[in-house]
Specification:
alpha/beta, 6 strands, globular, disordered N terminus, Undecaprenyl pyrophosphate synthetase, 8 helices, binds 3-methylbut-3-enyl trihydrogen diphosphate, binds magnesium ion, about 260 residues
């Protein structure tokens, strides 16, 4: 059997180390109010700010937010362009304050498709915050789980061709090390707002043993109280990683 990439820790029944969220429902939130969709996205940014602060204060290690999927280019060009502008204005307005609060920002996804201004801003923001030891905030933009696995395999293939991989045996650990989330713990808790119960090409590899939580609440209405409800639900679950409930309860170490 191959070595599992998922760590087994029978004593860990506290807060999730890594929370990954699909922020969905901005458009419907706006539509309900007879407002343009962009108003929903603007309101959604306020939710992001509230949640980042809450997670940072609660010493959550990693918060990953799905901001723009590789499939979201299929939206009307005006909406795509407004989303880019919103990303730029939010990042430039917030990055210094985030850094003062010790937040470390990492952007995952294919940045090369973004306007140059945004690409530069992402590099500058990551550089500014790279030594911060508070919450790691992962923004997934132009991200897709299929893309992530494919770029990892391409990196590995290039290393094999260049002869820099001493052992060409491809293991699960090797693939995990080449994903955009290498060096981060895998998500413990996955939340999707907005009522849809699907992954929409989010972290496909990384979510293998994540606990799922779906809520009908639209993203602009998602509050810190509702986040805490999701965390409390997570804490009440028994993570078995393939073992029996009794084994986990008796804290037997894996063979
Ligand atoms: C999520 O909200 C934000 C992005 C995908 C950028 P939506 O825009 O998907 O909102 P709904 O699903 O149309 O309500
Ligand atoms: C997923 O939401 C992507 C983001 C939240 C960025 P979508 O609203 O795009 O997902 P689908 O299309 O309904 O699956
Ligand atoms: Mg949606």
């Amino acid at each position: 059997m191959s070595t599992p990439t998922v760590a087994f820790d029978p004593t860990d029944n506290g807060n999730p180390r890594h929370i990954a969220i699909i922020m969905d429902g901005n458009g419907r939130w706006a539509k309900k109010r007879f407002m343009p969709r962009v108003m929903g996205h603007r309101s959604g940014v306020k939710t992001v700010k509230r949640l980042v602060e809450y997670c940072n204060n609660k010493n959550i290690e990693v918060l990953s937010l799905f901001a723009f999927s590789s499939e979201n280019w299929r939206r009307p060009p005006e909406e795509v362009s407004l989303l880019m502008k919103l990303f730029i204005t939010t990042l430039s307005a917030e990055i210094k304050r985030l850094s003062l609060k010790k937040v470390r920002l990492i952007c995952i996804g294919d940045n090369s498709a973004f306007p140059q201004e945004l690409q530069d801003m992402i590099v500058d923001s990551e550089t500014l915050t790279k030594n911060n030891d508070g919450l790691t905030l992962v923004i997934a933009a132009n991200y897709g789980g299929h893309w992530d696995i494919t770029q990892a395999v391409n990196q590995i293939s290039a290393k094999i061709k260049a002869g820099t991989l001493p052992d060409a045996l491809i293991t699960e650990a090797l693939i995990a090390q080449h994903l955009t989330t290498a060096n981060l713990p895998e998500p413990d808790l996955f939340i999707r707002t907005g009522g849809e119960e699907r992954i929409s090409n989010f972290m496909l590899w990384q979510l293998a043993y994540t606990e799922f939580y779906f809520t009908k609440t639209l993203w602009p209405d998602f509050s810190t109280t509702l986040l805490q409800e999701a965390i409390d639900s997570f804490k009440g679950r028994q993570r078995r990683f393939g073992r029996t409930g009794d084994q986990v309860q008796n804290q037997e170490p894996p063979p």
